Amino acid sequence: MAFVFTPPAPPSVAVAGSDDRLPVRRIFCVGRNYAAHAREMGKDPDRDPPFFFTKPADAVVDSGETVAYPPETENFHYEAELVAVIGTAGRNIAEKDSLSHVWGYAVGNDLTRRDLQLKAREQGRPWDWGKAFDRSAVIGPVYPVEKTGHPDKGAITLTVNGKTKQDADLSELIWSVPEIISILSHSIELRPGDLIMTGTPAGVGPLLEGDLCRVEIAGLGAIETPIGPRV
User: Fold this and answer.
1) How far is CA 185 from CA 17, 64, 83, in A?
2) Mode of pairing for the β-strands spanning 60-61 and 137-139
3) Which of 49, 38, 86 is nearest to 183 (CA)?
4) Three-class SS of residue 74?
5) What is d(CA 187, CA 177) in angstroms, rounded to the nearest whole number?
6) How far apart, in whole angstroms, are the C-alpha atoms of residue 139 and residue 108?
7) Is 17 left (phi over 0), alpha (psi -120 to 50) or beta?
8) Among 34, 138, 149, 227, which is least packed by CB within 10 angstroms?
9) Cβ(173)–Cβ(199) under 8 Å?
């Protein structure tokens, strides 16, 4: 068998302390998973069942790479997030077993065309144009669980040009990582290379051309993203 087009190289992210790369299969994102962020987005933060959206695997961007200001938006936002990386496949995973499926953790930035997302939400349409665009998932080096354990508390912060914009604690997640993994696995089989962006704290806001966005999570280091000219 031959392919009619040359297949692209598989999307991948860095591994902390290694020259190896981790292949990315899918990217799942949890919406409004910090109470204060739910309120700032005009929603009730009660523990309703979590909802998910996705980004394409090839939206991943390494820390330090420049991301051009994307087209068709006038309100380009940052969102600091903890990323859980699946290393062992499973479906219908019990919450008590969820963490055994995690290979490691990383710092993420869920870049968002907020105006397009809000317009879609108002019209009852999917969020893809606001969330799933090119180079919209900045993912830092993945730290294996044996080096970090399973972070369930610790500071998560974001700065733009050195000014703090988001400052929260992982313990403030409405739905914990084990709960998220279990819930997802009852709808979709999780497999190695699936990335789960677990939600962002309050304080989301705009990025402009020339900005430098930095996200840091205790124990997982920091990532930086320069914002380039509009494409």
Assistant:
1) 30, 32, 16
2) parallel
3) 49
4) coil
5) 16
6) 5
7) left
8) 149
9) yes
Question: What is the token pair recorded at 139?
Answer: 């993912």
The proportion of the chain whose per-residue pLDDT surpasses 90, expressed as a percent, equals 90
Give pLDDT, residue 45. 60
Per-residue model confidence as pLDDT tens digits over 12-50: 999 999 999 999 999 999 988 987 666 666 666 666 788
Q: Which helix (H) or strand (E) holds 185?
A: helix 177-185
Residue pair 76/153 in contact by the 8 Å Cβ criterion: no
CA distance 173 to 200: 9
Calculate the alpha carbon distances from 13 to 58, 89, 104 in Å: 10, 19, 12
Residue listed under structure tokens 């914002």: 227
Q: How many angstroms separate the first and last alpha carbons of the chain?
A: 38
Per-residue pLDDT tens over the stretch 81-105: 999 999 999 999 999 999 999 999 9
Instruction: Tell me how far apart the alpha carbons of residues 192 and 182 are, in angstroms, rounded to a whole number.
Output: 15
Bridge partners, residue 156, by sequence: 168, 217
The predicted structure's pLDDT at residue 40: 65
| CB count in 10 Å sphere of residue 147 | 12
* Structure letter (DSSP) for residue 169: E
Nearest Cα to Cα of residue 91 among 179, 26, 175, 183: 183
pTM: predicted TM-score of the whole model, two decimal places: 0.95
Distance CA 57, CA 135 (A): 10
